[in-house]
Amino acid sequence: MSKSPGVQVTAPLLQMRGIVKAFPGVRALDGVDLDVQPGEVHCLLGQNGAGKSTLIKVLAGAHQPDDGEITWRGEPVRLGNPQAAMSLGIATIYQELDLVDGLTVADNIFLGREVARFGLSHLSRANRLAGALLARLGHPEIRPTAEVGSLPAAAQQMVSIARALSQDARLIIMDEPSAVLDNEEVERLFGVIRDLTADDVAVVYISHRLEEIREIGDRITVLKDGRTVATGLPARETPTREVITLMTGRDIEYVFPPRRTALAGDADPLLEVDGLALDGHFADVSFTVRPGEIVGLAGLVGSGRSEILETVYGARRPSAGSVRVAGRRLRPGDTGAAVAAGIGLAPEERKSQALLLGEAVYRNISISSLGRFASVGFLSRRAEKAAARKQVTALEVRPADVEREARTLSGGNQQKVVLARWLLRDCRVLLLDEPTRGVDVGARSEIYALIRELADRGVAVVVVSSEIPEVLGLADRVLVISDGAVVAERTADALDEHAVLDMVMEGTVGAVAAASGTQHGGDGA
Ligand SMILES: Nc1ncnc2c1ncn2[C@@H]1O[C@H](COP(=O)(O)OP(=O)(O)OP(=O)(O)O)[C@@H](O)[C@H]1O
Q1: Tell me, what DSSP letter sits at residue 152?
Q2: Which CATH number fits the domain that encloses residue 20?
Q3: Hey, how many other C-beta atoms are within 10 angstroms of the C-beta on 214?
Q4: Are residues 284 and 248 in the same domain?
Q5: Are the beta carbons of 342 and 429 closer than 8 angstroms?
Q6: Neighbouring C-beta atoms of residue 127, cutoff 10 Å
Q7: Overall number of domains in the chain
Q8: Which residues form the ABC transporter domain (predicted)?
Q9: Residue 190 falls within a domain, yes or no?
Q10: CA distances in angstroms from 234 to 142, 197, 240, listed in the order given
């Protein structure tokens, strides 16, 4: 192992052997082994549905395993409930953070524990302790008295980590912590993780971004279909290709589909956005997308990218500007008009905004195209399911069962289902917000190919992604957004990741300079 002396293979902090957990119709865990050393970052990898979340819920005491053994510091333990896990020093930072929005930072950190419970003096003590924990995490700017719901995602995550520290956690499980963070925030998180491991705290880290594993991980365990297929691999030395093969059971050329060489260069634009503005979010955004073209919006989280898509879609009412589809101006702030004109939006927050959790997978996929399956007033369920099945196969939704309730799918598979809905619907203009968030490496390349296929059929596509390589690999043209303004527009092959980051940072500096009245010669769109 390449890390600190703390990662020498000594007595493991945690040992899991032969863990089994079955749900009706599926063995989510079918004999999982995992060892975690004190002070290491142990990465847990696997495709969507491989069993990662189920395993960490077992560790967190939220699920009871049907079989298997768990030892903690050499002693057999039973994690009968979340309190049992917590009292041993196991803390979990879930993807959907379990914070209470309406409470303060300090209240959340000490929720349910004594320090927050008694009178004023304890309140100020709680605030002081919370401040000290956040300072230890390198985030003294997060005020203990701030309401958690008002904080950005990265700060909320720090509050969760502070809570783990306040419980003297020796093992912190982080389930896709980077999914909601931009590059700079991920680097800061990694700084925090390095400090934690230097103090001998172990971290189990889950992510679908394999480049992160190399940067922050010490060892890797790979799950496939509920089983451990490899464990203890060195994170930096194991080739990415090998990890992907272990995860998927096949070789994947992790490539983007080829761009069309002869773009519909002189075709009329299908989507025209002109001088669009939304007070407090973005201003003067103009771009066009021709049929067959994929335009990417790159920028940091919070730069206004998602708001641009939502405004084009009519979900927000612009303060200025216009949107045209095939030359016809849409009524501003009217999603009905946008949908009628053929615009589709696959939003970022798929789970809360888009998924019908209690409905079957096939209905979730067909819901926006039901007209297609109706004849003389009857819905052909057979046709509906057949169409859904095709999408499920193409996107490798697991299990590939269209009758299953959406709520029983793993997070990444739920993402694929909502995406499938928009891929099935006949849109002329498709707006995709973070189309591969939480999606595994195998399905990513399938999604890229499907998006390109839609473009080849004449759809105008706009893609927002916080992963800059994804925007550059997929799009034909890229708009770089910084602080709510388009700071550059280029063909994708004229850019690389560093160039985009430089423009984003320059745009941010420019905005600050402009706000303080200083001259700034930026790179205009
Ligand atoms: N409560 C449940 N009821 C039925 N099946 C479930 C339940 N929870 C999980 N499963 C199934 O167990 C399997 C493993 O799911 P899990 O959420 O652990 O996967 P994962 O590796 O975390 O995936 P992702 O990367 O998509 O988050 C999946 O087939 C899933 O559909």
Answers
A1: -
A2: 3.40.50.300
A3: 17
A4: no
A5: yes
A6: 21
A7: 4
A8: 14-250, 265-508
A9: no
A10: 35, 16, 11
How buried is residue 334: exposed, middle or buried, by Cβ count under 10 Å (0-12/13-18/19+)? middle
Residue 48 or residue 314, greater confidence? 314
| Burial (CB count <10 Å: 0-12, 13-18, 19+), residue 335 | middle
Indicate the DSSP class of residue 360.
B
Residue that the structure tokens 């003389």 belong to = 376
In a domain, 505, yes or no: yes
507 in contact with ligand 1, CB cutoff 6 A: no
Strand partners, 480: 298, 488
Looking at residues 157-182, what average pLDDT do you find?
Answer: 88
- Tell me, using a 6 A CB cutoff, whether residue 175 lines ligand 1: no
Distances (CA, A) of 151 to 154, 251, 335: 8, 42, 29
Same domain for 459 and 512: yes
pLDDT at 518 over 50: no
- Three-state secondary-structure class, residue 276: strand
Place of tokens 């057999």: 76
Q: How does DSSP assign 168-222, residue by residue? A: T-SEEEEESGGGG--HHHHHHHHHHHHHHHHTT-EEEEE-S-HHHHHHH-SEEEE
Residue 441 Cβ contacting ligand 1 at under 6 Å? no
Distance between Cα 23 and ligand 1 center (Å): 9
Range of the domain at 286: 267-342+427-525
Residues 316, 465, single domain; the answer is yes
Among 394, 426, 458, the domain boundary falls at 426
Q: How far apart are CA 17 and CA 233, in angstroms?
A: 17
In this structure, which residue's CA is closest to atom 28 in ligand 1? 49
Q: Is 185 within the bounds of a domain?
A: no
Pocket test for ligand 1, best of 19, 21, 26 (most atoms within 8 A of CB): 26
Is residue 116 predicted with pLDDT exceeding 50? Answer: no
Q: Is residue 69 part of a domain?
A: yes
User: HEC profile for 470-522?
Assistant: HHHHHCCEEEEEECCEEEEEEEHHHCCHHHHHHHHHHHHHHHHHHHCCCCCCC
Q: What is the pLDDT of residues 415-449, one digit of tens each?
A: 888 888 888 887 899 999 988 887 887 778 888 88
Please report, in angstroms and rounded to a whole number, the separation of the first and last CA atoms in the chain: 48
- Same domain, residue pair 200 and 63: yes
Q: Where does a domain end: 395, 426, 457?
A: 426
Q: Are residues 328 and 446 in the same domain?
A: yes
If phi > 0 it is left, if psi is from -120 to 50 it is alpha, else beta; for residue 152 that is beta
Same domain, 439 and 523: yes
277 and 229 assigned to the same domain: no
